[in-house]
Design a protein that fits this description.
The protein is an alpha+beta fold and 576 residues long. The chain has 17 helices and 22 strands. It is elongated.
Length: 576
């Protein structure tokens, strides 16, 4: 008996579907790509239960006739390429002919379409890869694809889907990332009847960035465009002051296709270079338009990975364009890299070693020149404690130096205060709730689509933490109250980071509380190089001594470090 056999067609289709369809968002991406390729300028997406129960994509594109409908669900059936050579001249978003049959193999799918210029249309139904019916029907011009009961015949795959809110968030992100590449297309996305995205068409791409980045970042955005031989680079850059701790606001497009590419990300960061603190990322969009023969999009079934024919030239071009846009361009393109008009190349400078992000741990003070070396302090006797470390002074306005029985204790004032605030906030939550301070003058914020989604899902939890946000229409929110302990925090800078931190931990309420409290403690704590009085320093050390807390801040950085007398004696060769 032979051990090798040909798989049944249904099994082969389900295996192939695993490469293309892994969650509702991937289905939406494939269907919207097809709508755009069909010339649609109005695309409506609707999901129920995050797409687990239903996905519906409606467009006003060219539509399909009866024969094309039947062919569209066959594997490798496509209208976009004819020969292998066509793979190197692809201008459409889709081309493999795998999306519809893959989706049909793992769901119950209905396609309703009317060809442009025809009086009537047709509806085709297919379930788990088996053709059902095809009938003539009255329908508007364009195509409606409805996908129900995703993975209903594959329980093993269905259990890997996340909660409905999580899946809806991925769908919203997928649709959002298409907005800048097609500003002339009307996009709308609804989840369970609730409108998530409503992006009317515009001749300008900037309004799309308002929904993606928020109004403040979009208003500060800089635009640059450079022509090179064979390709064009356009960039929309938000100044480094708006940098984030996550790379979730980077948008890369090649020939209008949204991609994820390490080469372009590295080039973008190199262009920003000294304008960003180490460990932070800018908010930016990059559009590269080039001849299809200079890029290979047939790398991965998801079509989000590409290869450039001359990646080095693209890298240098993007770095130069970013630096020119931001000003004081110093990185340039040699003539042999084929730009239209070249400049001189300068060797790349090594990254500066900065241990922490400036927004989080460092606060610059007007007039500060250098570290105060134990100046303006009382004598050790005046600042000593009865049963604890004896305060000696401060180094660099950041590290408190104390003497103990074991040796010299150095305390990071920011990490120490952060840990103290974290423990106090946790205790307030567990006891009677966080003390709240209403704002006399509420703050107004313009939030992105993603931030609005997170607030819709987690506003109740944030309110329990004392952060009361009220929707004021559109993308505008009003901050009405804050925790009393965080009155000194810069909420315009802090709120986006707080929203991002609670999004990272899913929907476990306990984890959301922990993430939010840790973020609050970090922003409410004394910063490095903050000038604090002798009494404040003494109180900080006393609270740290009495708290009995762990030796790390909530983000894992050490609060203090002990250098023993033996280590000191070894430094001075008193012991071997």
């Amino acid at each position: 008996m032979n051990g090798i056999r040909i798989l049944p067609e249904a099994v082969a289709c389900q295996i192939a579907a695993g490469e293309v369809v892994d969650r509702p968002a991937s289905i939406v991406r494939e269907l919207v790509d097809n709508s755009l390729d069909a010339g649609a300028d109005r695309i409506f997406v609707r999901t129920e239960s995050g797409g687990r129960r239903m996905i519906r994509v409606l467009d006003n594109g060219r539509g399909m006739g009866r024969d094309d409908l039947l062919l569209s669900i066959e594997r490798h059936a496509t209208s976009k390429i004819r020969t292998a050579d066509d793979l190197f001249s692809i201008r459409s978003l889709g081309f493999r002919g795998e999306a519809l049959p893959s989706i049909a193999a793992v769901s119950r799918m209905t396609i309703t379409s009317r060809l442009s210029g025809e009086l009537g249309g047709h509806r085709l139904s297919i379930s788990a890869g088996r053709l059902g019916t095809i009938e003539e029907i009255g329908t508007p011009e364009g195509t409606i694809v409805e996908v129900k009961d995703l993975f209903f015949a594959m329980p093993a795959r269905r259990k890997f889907l996340r909660a409905a809110k999580t899946e809806a968030g991925h769908v919203a992100e997928t649709v959002s990332r298409m907005l800048p590449a097609f500003p002339d297309v009307f996009f709308k996305y609804q989840e369970g009847g609730r409108e998530i995205i409503n992006a009317p068409p515009s001749s300008d791409v900037v309004p799309r960035f308002v929904s993606l980045l928020g109004r403040d970042a979009a208003d500060a955005m800089l635009h640059g465009e450079e022509q090179f031989q064979g390709f064009t680079v356009r960039v929309f850059l938000v100044p480094g002051a708006f940098s984030r701790s996550r790379a979730d606001r980077l948008f890369m497009y090649v020939n209008k296709r949204y991609i994820r590419d390490r080469l372009l990300t590295k080039a973008l960061l190199e262009g920003y270079r000294e304008r960003l603190m180490k460990g932070t990322y800018p908010q930016a969009a990059v559009f590269i338009d080039l001849e299809p023969g200079l890029v290979d999009v047939n790398v991965h079934p998801t079509k989000q990975e590409i290869r450039f024919h001359d990646g080095n030239a693209v890298f240098r071009a993007l770095v130069a364009t970013v630096e020119r846009c931001l000003g004081s361009s110093s990185y340039s393109i040699p003539q042999d890299s084929n730009p239209v008009g070249g400049f001189e190349i300068r060797p790349l400078q090594a990254d500066r070693e900065v241990s922490e992000s400036e927004w989080r741990y460092e606060k610059r003070l007007d007039g500060w020149v250098g570290p105060d070396l134990v100046s303006g302090w009382k004598t050790p006797e005046q600042t000593s404690f009865a049963d604890g470390p004896r305060l000696l002074g401060s180094i660099g306005g950041t590290y408190l130096v104390c003497e103990t029985k074991e040796g010299m204790l150095m305390i990071d004032q920011h990490a120490a205060h952060e840990r103290i605030l974290y423990e106090e906030l946790k205790r307030q939550v567990q006891d009677s709730g966080i003390q709240v301070q209403a704002l006399l003058l509420p703050l107004q914020f313009e939030l992105s689509t993603g931030e609005k989604r997170i607030l819709d899902e987690k506003a109740d939890i944030l309110q329990k933490l004392g952060v009361e946000l009220e929707h004021f229409g559109g993308s505008t929110y009003i901050l009405r109250s804050i925790p009393s302990m965080l009155q000194q925090a810069d909420w315009r800078e802090f709120l986006p980071e707080l929203i991002a931190s609670v999004d990272d931990v899913g929907f476990d309420e306990g984890k959301i509380f922990e993430a939010a409290i840790a973020s609050m403690a970090c922003h409410g704590a004394i910063k490095a190089r903050d000038r604090i009085t002798d009494s404040e320093i003494s109180a900080l050390v006393s609270r740290l001594r009495d708290a009995g807390i762990p030796g790390n801040c909530p983000h894992g950085r050490p609060v203090f470090n002990l250098i023993t007398f033996r280590e000191i004696e070894k430094m001075f060769k008193r012991v071997v």
